[in-house]
Amino acid sequence: MVEFEFTEEQRALREVARDVCTRHAPEEEVRRLMGTAEGFDRAVWRRLGNDVGLLGLAVPEEHGGAGAGLVELALLAEETGRSLLPGPLLGTVALAVPALLATGDDAVAKELLPGVVEGTTVLALAATDDRGGWAPAQPSVTVGSGGTLTGEVAHVLDGAAADALLVLAAADDGPALFLVDGDAPGLAREVQSGLDLTRRQARLRLDGVPARPVGSAASASAAVATARRTAAVVLAAAAVGSAQRMLDSSVEYARTRLQFGRPIGSFQAVRHRCADMLVDVEHARSAAYHAAWAADAGTDDPALAADLATVVTAEAHLRVARSTVQVHGGIGFTWEHPTHLHYKRAVSDAALLGGRAAAATRLADAVLEPA
Q1: pLDDT given at position 1
Q2: Can you give the pTM of this predicted structure?
Q3: Residues in contact with 124: Cβ distance below 8 Å, sequence separation at least 6, in sequence order
């Protein structure tokens, strides 16, 4: 008995997302954007939002979105992961937007979300410390006189391109979220070098930066936790798309690459490796969409399902990436072949949002300790 089946609308959404990603993110375009200042094409991003309506899938209708659920957002993420479409899907749509909505600050939401939905506003969530640690109990940014912010945060997803930032800072009543304009005086942003050049991260330095409080101090920690869970599911779904793309390329290569006068796919060792890759991809897909369904339906623990998806998809993504290199042999190691782009994405994903090790620890605490 299955938990759910994709509806006709969801299958149509997948087809639209795949078509858009195929047209706008061929390999040569992805490589070109890797060398640009922002790392993505704002014109394409606006097209995804204003023309196709994909960026507002999980945004409530009162803020200009479609009011859909996390399953729909996961479908979009899977297709962007398949093509490695550069853009602030994870940093803006999956992290900053859920955090903003969870604060309950309707005034700021009404101000920012229409632009996010249309693709004209990039919003980032700075909820790390100065070493990139996720959601610290004592943020490295502090609130000074007049509500200004001072401090430094690292590894902020899409932080360099953001038009506005939600910054987690240490206030008198505990961690609180503040809204900072991207061109605010005293804000310095630096793109950090990373393994995955298709997903940008930045270091932010704040020196007396003017900011506005968002929500209440009591809502900040819960809002950041909600954002992490949502982003973890989106990240898992994107990993499924990337792993599926590598599996498809490996099977195709095994069918056409000849060795000793026969396709290498006819050799048992290669067949078994491809079969193991298929098992990993399907296992990851089940875990990712179970987490999305759990968040939408509320029948399972969303936090538990998200952590399970993180652990399963991160490990499967890495195994599939390594096997893809093995199937392709020498060419799989070269810069010219797309395998290394997906391999770097797999390694980088395993460390985001606290990493799979932190997710495994939370799983153990939730499941083993009560038992």
Answers
A1: 46
A2: 0.96
A3: 88, 91, 92, 95, 96, 156, 157, 158, 159, 161, 162, 164, 165, 166
